[in-house]
């Protein structure tokens, strides 16, 4: 796990710990276990697992059975990697138990996709995983208002969900800043993740706007050297 350097101040307040989260949507699915081992060895902090149902979003990806075999294939690593499951499915609740059983550490979902947001968050928490709400570009942050005590991660989508390889929507930066203000005002330990079109060139602007967790699919898996790409992202973050 990457630990950001301490500041020079007398109080030794630690700088925010940044997490780089490769999205396996852009990996070679025929070699998924090896791809995940390779990005972990290359310095990834967590693994972002995109679940699409061809109903909530117009694309179909992978489900809990794939996660279960992936987690088994990683069992010989010194420690279990953190798996960040991003559910782009509707309804949500039916699948929560399956992903908990399969080894999810975070389960995030879109508020529009759940009839009962408080119930879905509670199901995830009661199952022992961390929770998260995901905000599409046009979804207001007000969904956090009455449930923030149950939220461990806020995920701001910087593209419309459904596909990898899309361009970052610039308005996402001000939304990140708004989410950062809400999180800081809550006093809770909540991660702020950004997802969609993140690359070496724009990761620092997302961090400046308040993000601490960066999903990158095509930028990492589409590169010829995962380690070099992750290191360059890290360097941009260290320069802040
Ligand atoms: C989009 C997914 C993203 C996607 C990111 O619906 O949630 O996680 O895989 O891919 P890139 O980094 O290529 O935009
Ligand atoms: Zn995602």
Describe this structure in words.
Strand 4, helix 4 (117-126) and strand 5 (130-135) form a beta-alpha-beta unit. This protein has an 8-stranded parallel beta sheet with strand order 1-8-7-6-5-4-3-2. It is 32% helix and 18% strand. The longest helix is centred in the C-terminal third of the chain and has 15 residues, at 172-186. With 240 residues, it is an alpha/beta fold. It has a single domain, classed as Aldolase class I (TIM Barrel), CATH 3.20.20. It has helices spanning 32-41, 64-73, 93-102, 117-126, 172-186, 203-208, 218-221, 226-238; strands at 19-22, 46-52, 82-88, 106-109, 130-135, 153-157, 191-195, 213-216. The structure holds D-xylitol-5-phosphate (DX5) and zinc ion (ZN).
Label this structure with key terms:
8-stranded parallel sheet, binds D-xylitol-5-phosphate, 240 residues, TIM Barrel, 8 strands, globular, 8 helices
Quaternary assembly: single chain
DSSP helical segment count: 8
Widest beta sheet: strand line-up:
1-8-7-6-5-4-3-2
* Structural Rg: 17 Å
Low-confidence parts, pLDDT < 50 over ≥5 residues? Answer: 1-15
Q: Specify the structural class.
A: alpha/beta
Approximate shape: globular
- CATH architecture classification name: Alpha-Beta Barrel
The level-1 CATH class: Alpha Beta
Query: Compounds present?
Result: D-xylitol-5-phosphate, zinc ion
Helix and strand run: EHEHEHEHEEHEHEHH
Classified in CATH, the superfamily is Aldolase class I
Structurally, how many domains make up the residues?
1
Question: What value does the average pLDDT take?
Answer: 94
**CATH-defined fold name:** TIM Barrel
Question: Span between N and C termini?
Answer: 19 Å
Q: How much strand?
A: 15-25%
The profile of the biggest β sheet is:
8 strands, parallel
